Amino acid sequence: MRPGPHEGGALDEALGSALTGVVRRTGASIGGLFLTEEPRGVLRMVAVCGVPQEFTAPWRRLPLTAPAPLTEAVREHRMVWISGHDEMALRYPRTAAVLPYRFALAAIPLVGARRCWGGLVLLWPDERARAASARERGHLTASAHQLARLLDDLPGPPHLPELPRVLRVETERHPLVTGMAAADFLERLPEGAVSLDLEGRVTFVSTAAARLLGRPVRELLGTRPWQSLPWLDDPVYEDRYRTVVVSRTPASFDALRPPDQWLTFRLHPDASGISVRVLAGREQDAEPAAPPVRRAAPAPTGRLYQLVHLAAALTEIVTVKDLVALVTSQVLPAFGAQGMILSAFDAGRLSIAGHHGYSAEAVERLDALPLDTELTPAGEVLSAGVPAFVCSPAELARSHPEAVRISGKQAWAFLPLVVSGRPVGCCILSYDRPHDFSADERAVLTSLAGLVAQALDRAGLYDTQYRLVHELQQALLPSTLPPVPGLEVAARYLPAGHGLEVGGDFYDLLRLDDGTAAAVIGDVEGHSVAAAALMGQVRTAVHAHATAGAAPDQVMARTNQLLVDLDSELLVACLYVQLDLTGHRLLLASAGHVPPLIRSGPGRAGTLDVEPGPLLGIGSRVRYPVTAAALPAGAILALHTDGLVERPGADVARTTTELAAHLAGADDGDLTDLADSLVRHAWPGGRRTDDVTVLLLRALGGPER
Q1: Are 120 and 36 in contact, with CB atoms under 8 Å apart?
Q2: Measured between alpha carbons, how far is 675 from 566 in angstroms, rounded to an integer?
Q3: Distance between CA 166 and CA 179 in Å, rounded?
Q4: What fold does the segment set 179-296 form as a domain?
Q5: Is-contact 77 111, C-beta < 8 A?
Q6: Angle of helix 8-26 relative to helix 134-152, nearest 10 degrees?
Q7: Average pLDDT for residues 230-241, to the nearest whole number?
């Protein structure tokens, strides 16, 4: 009977029973049920079986846009089958990075009559690492339809718990085995026996195990071993437990109980928990009659944490140079490698973007190789999209004998860098000695290659855009200022910082006739290519009207009309100054620009009071008042943009007063040094939040000078 409209608890039980039933019938080791959280477009985990709740933390909420098997299954309304970790690493490197274990996975959407409700995820141990048969796919799809039908009958959205329910799949036990009989059997054995549930808590400890572990039974029950035994408080040992829970494969490890007692722990999992055998001595000293047990790879947790750390660092990469530095300083030590070559794929060739541990001659020979080169396997692995791990020179010499002689390295990991099926480059890690790559190491390196590929793709695009936008900006600013008799000039333009945003600051100096010059400075609203383009148009318009003989107010008015005609959404602050070098007079017209500073002599400087007009582009038929002022011989006029006086959390009036005081007392022997001094005073730390432009003009006494 299906649950009624108000039977939320009954629905939870029905969904839970359906999930555990699917897990039991399919032989899956782990199952998870996800429902869509509307309208946020997020998949919320509502129930799980086969793993403790703490394991679910990274997966409790999955954005539908995330690159993961389940989200793809829900978006495309089709089953996604992952046959093993290698396939996971190639198709979903982010997921593989967080789950570097051996397992097969199926993600099935819950497609109902009206909508897709969410999805179902099932995991099997790695012995199921193969393609699913048509019968298996049909059975999984039918199970998902059964869950979807339960949700179709709801009158409203289903209940989404904050934390997923942890369900248990009951397993059959031998009918003749009782609790006391099993305990008596274990107590007679010389080795220790410990039972853990899927949460990692101790549920049983034999007397021999308590003796070997050095703690009374009562102090071990209900605890996690790495919490109650300080010498087991190491991520390496906890990860053995995690690996066994997820992959359902036996593993073992050695641990030193202080001061000198070595113990061997053998872990045997099933759907209900883990049985642990504790033996005195190391693994190689254990009894020869013991059945063979697969040993876990050394320190997978350390590699996992390194991978997570590297993934976080890779997300912060901005330039290719940053990426090369990160691979050199962090990736090489993490995997014990000594050499690295990072190549970018461009126009059919692999161009070296960075390297470490190679001679200049080797780099020259390996640079700009075509993709079909036979010199190294780099082109082959990039074409195939499959990494190659070469453990010795003899192995590489069989297919690429010349490659061994080029570098003198002894082992290599050739990692293809592919983004969405598109080749972006190749990363080669090399070793000075022969190196055997373990299965876990290969899996982690394959996952890392996906992350490096995305970082290289982003960094290459950034470098290209950065070069283009800054070349554009430099082209729009004057490369040099014209010499004007009777006037000494210095200019400084500094962008806000490292980024793709193009500033809108501009400046110019015009020679109008033998005794007259004009200076202009301005700031276009915003930081973008559009702002830079508008800046170029404004500078050109001012230049045209000024050299045509227009008065300062007309220069501003006509430039304003141009912006109105262009229907630009951006506004422009601008200050136009006409200098009479013979009469030592100034005429100034301002379009909402910050007033300039003037230093009339040593120790005397202040703000020049200029009557402002409206910003350029604000509307038609506006007037710009003209302010007249004196410019004595030797006086310095300092035009600047607001980036020199506006700082976060600072009062503009106070910073302007402080800047004028600095100008008054600064050494004015060289205007270029003075301009740098003003910038350093305004931004002593060097990290600017806005563009800064400074144009200094000093009257020398007349055109004859």
Answers
A1: no
A2: 35
A3: 25
A4: Beta-Lactamase (3.30.450)
A5: yes
A6: 180
A7: 75
Tell me if residue 652 falls in helix, strand or coil. Answer: helix
Residue 639 pLDDT greater than 60, yes or no: yes
CA distances from 456 to 321, 399, 422, 463, 532 (A): 10, 28, 12, 10, 28
The structural domains of the chain, with segments of one domain joined by +, span: 8-167, 179-296, 302-469, 477-699
Q: Does residue 463 contact residue 320 with C-beta atoms inside 8 Å?
A: yes
Max alpha carbon distance in the chain (Å)?
117
Token pair, residue 98, equals 């967080």
Looking at this protein, which amino acid is placed at residue 88? Answer: M
In this predicted structure, which of 323-337, 406-420, 677-691 has the lowest mean pLDDT?
A: 677-691
CATH level 3 topology of 8-167: Beta-Lactamase (3.30.450)
Tell me, which fold does domain 477-699 have in CATH? Phosphatase 2c; domain 1 (3.60.40)
At the fourth CATH level, the homologous superfamily of domain 302-469 is GAF domain (3.30.450.40)
Same fold, 179-296 and 477-699: no
Quick one: 467 exposed, middle or buried, by C-beta within 10 A (0-12, 13-18, 19+)? exposed
| Kind plus residue range of the DSSP H or E element containing 178 | none
Cβ–Cβ under 8 Å, residues 684 and 659: no
Spell out the long-range contacts of 656-662 with Cβ–Cβ below 8 A and sequence spacing 24 or more: 656/594, 656/597, 656/607, 659/597, 660/597, 660/605, 660/606, 660/607, 661/605
pLDDT (tens digit per residue) in 245-290? 777 778 888 888 888 888 888 888 877 788 888 888 876 544 333 3
CA pair distance 182, 180, nearest whole angstrom: 5
CA-to-CA distance for 318 and 311, rounded, in angstroms?
Answer: 14
Read off the amino acid at residue 645. V
Q: Does the pLDDT of residue 556 top 90, yes or no? A: yes
Between 158 and 607, the higher pLDDT residue: 607
279 phi/psi in degrees, rounded to 5: -125, 145
By C-alpha distance, which of 300, 283, 344 is closest to 319?
344
The closest alpha carbon to 517, from 445, 433, 584, belongs to 584
Q: What is the pTM of this model?
A: 0.48
Contact 612, 666 (CB under 8 A): no
Q: Looking at residue 281, what DSSP letter applies? A: S
End-to-end CA distance of the chain: 103
Phi, psi of 592 (to 5 degrees): 70, 20
Question: Which of 53-67, 264-278, 419-433, 514-528 has maximum average pLDDT?
Answer: 419-433
Distance CA 359, CA 447 (A): 29
Lowest mean pLDDT segment, chosen from 78-82, 95-99, 285-289, 481-485: 285-289
Q: How far is CA 309 from CA 246, 318, 395, 451, 599, in A?
A: 22, 17, 32, 12, 54
Model pLDDT, residue 301:
46
DSSP state of 592: B
Burial 170-186 (b: 16+ CB within 10 A, else e): eeeeeeeeeeeeeeeeb
- Averaged pLDDT of the chain: 82
The two three-digit tokens of residue 639, written as one number: 């035009």
Residues in Cβ contact with 149 at an 8 Å cutoff, skipping those fewer than 6 apart:
112, 113
How far CA 500 is from CA of 473, 495, 520, in Å, comes to 11, 10, 26
Q: Confidence band (pLDDT; 50, 70, 90) for 702?
A: very low
Which CA distances in Å does 621 have to 556, 617, 624?
Answer: 11, 11, 10
- The CA-atom distances, in angstroms, between 659 and each of 605, 653, 683 are 9, 10, 11
